[in-house]
Amino acid sequence: MRPPRVISFSQKLSKWDLKFSPYLYISPFFLMFAVVGLFPIAYTAVISFMDWDLVRNSGEFVGFDQYIWILTQPHFWTALRNTFSIFVLSSVPQLILAIFIAAVLDRNIRAKTFWRMAVLVPYVVAPVAVGLIFNAMFADKSGLINSWLEVIGISEIPWHVEPFWSHVAIATMVNYRWVGYNALILLAAMQAVNRDYYEAATVDGAGPIRQFFSITMPSLKPTLIFVIITSTIGGLQIFDEPRVFDQFGRGGAGQQWLTITLYLYDIGWGQWNFGRAAAMAWILFIIILGIGLINLLVTRTVVRDEGMRSELGKRQQKRAARAAKKQVKESQR
Amino acid sequence: MNSRALRRTALLAVVATTSAIVLAGCAGGDAGGDSSEGEGGGETLTLATFNDMGYSDELLAEFTEETGIEVVHNKAATSNDARANFFQKLGKGGLADVEAVEVDWFTEMMQYSDLVVPVPDDLKGRWLDWKEAAATDADGNLVAYGTDMGPQAVCYRQDLFEAAGLPSDREAVAELFPTWDAFFQVGADYTEKTGKPFIDSANSVLQGLVNQLEIAYEDPDGSIVAADNPDIRAAYDAVVDKGIPISAYPGQWNDDWYAAMAGGDFAAMLCPPWMHGIIAGEAPDIEGWDIANAFPEGGGNWGGSYLVVPADGENTEAAQQLADWLTAPENQIKAFTNAGTFPSQIEAQDSADLTGYVNEYFNDAPTGQIGIDRANAITVSTYKGQDYFKYHDALQNAITRVFDGLEDKETAWETWLTEISGF
User: Fold this and answer.
1) Of the residues A45, B60, B228, B338, which has the fewest C-beta atoms closer than 10 A?
2) To the nearest whole angstrom, how far is the Cα of A55 from the nearest Cα of chain B?
3) What is the pLDDT of residue A314?
4) Which among B91, B260, B263 has the least Cβ separation from residue A55?
């Protein structure tokens, strides 16, 4: 039997300090998040089951009516199609281009910092400004791009009429803004790759292309997952570019470039139907969650694991971590 | 300072900062609604408008001189911004003491007419009948102060008319457009002769036709008649069959439309007075614009605004005074000379400042007198219910689809019917 120990108050206090202070330090963020993040999300869920009057702040419970209404709207499905189409048209070329640019910037070139800052410039331009500039370029009759096309003998492309071409135009604006941003993130990851690998590979006689696919790509995996997930979320929430693609911002007369968030915005702020808009927001949330998961799985399997820097396997790493923890606990006692 | 004390201080600082941010956020929310003491010890009122309604600083200074009340003027860039702000804060506080409301969303506002202060009875009769009728709620209260309106005329290009062998002086051109059929015929002749579009957009023609109907999409009793209203179908048929072939674009306000205006590509436009400034501003190099004192089949109103006084404002009496003063005939005429906002007050229409007003850009056309004549020609005021905008927007989309060749006439109509059945 151990002798009973008497703990003084100050000792107790310091123990509490050790235990609870860290939580106190991080609490401002979580408090703020609860107020400005969690509460609106929950509130949206409540409103989505109601026929809501924004001005009078009152509503009537209608169950799943709003969800059913949205799922039976042809516009919703058109918007879903457009969103995916724009997402694919922007994300895929964007990532390929970003990796390419990052790989180029990773080489030994003159005025490195200048080039690195230069690729970020489009990201700094406000999306509305991008919209204005690109709109003038993509105008059906008076646009710069169509007059260029005419010079090389291609007939005018109806950017604001054909769904596919409108998606291409919008994806161009998106790519313009985000390629540089993604390239810099990927570049940072590339710089972190141990240069010894490249040296060894060069000694082994691997060319730059082989090095890129066997060393750079696998090392980029965690960063790629991050970039792909953020661009998935961004892509599915695409709003600014289609919003400024014409003067009304409602996705075109035939819903050619109506995206989900654009539709959501129109229902909420155009038609003042917040119940439906809230239901729509939740549907979008679920879609993003689903796509995000699929993306994560696909990226995990597609990009191979060769670049792991630790010699230990996953299971061994876990075992080592557990042992270390135990040791720490013992020493504390 | 030992490390623990340091930690405590840091914690305190974090908590203080957080609460400061939260408090600042709360304070920011209702800053707009203050009607506190002004610098000179007098009262201060806030006025919220959009675009350019002609309420210049000089005009507001006159009010301050007369009453001793300072006016802080917040101008939103577009009417859409003003609309979003208005409905977010209506009934909750935070609106300006006097708010401007555009006719496009005025009917939406009328659902909440109990949340604004009615106009005093002695001001009734200041405005044209239909302008007042639209602002009178079910209980017979007039709830908004009319500012301007948009009596439409036909703007045309003298030089292009002459080149196409059409009469080109103002009086003769006015004779050309007694009816819509005549209007479409002139357009068809022009297009055939020159191979160029006659009018700027098909949807502005739809706008003109619908603004002459008594009932468009909703009955005043609240029922929806959009799909069965033969007048709407007739307007649609006319625009698709005769309007589209002579139009340059399906709608207005896009880049191509502006570019075409600057380049002088079309020969005519339906134009309310507020459009004059837009034409003159966008096409400064084009000479030959003129205005015919005519509109097919009488008159039509397009656009205009009201002022309202939110009931939860802190000083509604002074706010009423300001709204009254701003919409007084003599001051509305000053606004007209400032920004071309055509007065909707009966008395304003007799003023020499208005009747004698000529617009240099439009070949010295007497735009004041034309506006008065066109306003007097307005015989019907279209009933625009709370969902007018949705239905009209969808119908405009149908016409655009036909124009773009995405759908044929019947398919586009059917699509419209399906679309509105979902509302």
Assistant:
1) B228
2) 6
3) 65
4) B91
Chain A residue with CA closest to B249: the answer is A141
What is the rounded distance in angstroms from the CA atom of residue A34 to the CA atom of residue B277? 50
- Given a cut of 60, whether residue A26 has pLDDT beyond it is yes
Tell the residue number behind the tokens 């169509």, with chain if given.
A146
* pLDDT surpassing 60 at residue B30: no
Tokens standing for B157?
């290009």
Say whether pLDDT at B371 is over 50.
Answer: yes
Task: List the single residue in B with minimal CA-CA distance to A68.
Answer: B422
Please state, in angstroms and rounded to a whole number, the distance separating the CA atoms of residues A157 and B282: 26
Condensed to tens digits (0 to 9), the pLDDT of residues B157-183 reads 999 999 999 999 999 999 999 999 999
B75 burial type by CB count under 10 A (0-12 exposed, 13-18 middle, 19+ buried):
middle
Q: Report the relative pairing of strands B247-249 and B199-201 from DSSP bridges.
A: parallel
Pairing of strands B342-343, B153-157: unpaired
As for the ipTM of the complex, it is 0.76
Least confident of A121-125, B362-366, B404-408: A121-125
Residue with tokens 């709620």: B137
Quick check: A161 and B405 CB within 8 A?
Answer: yes
- Rounded to 10 deg, the angle between the B230-238 and B409-421 helix axes is 140
Cα pseudo-dihedral B78, B80, B82, B85, rounded to 10: -140
Indicate the pTM of the whole model.
Answer: 0.80
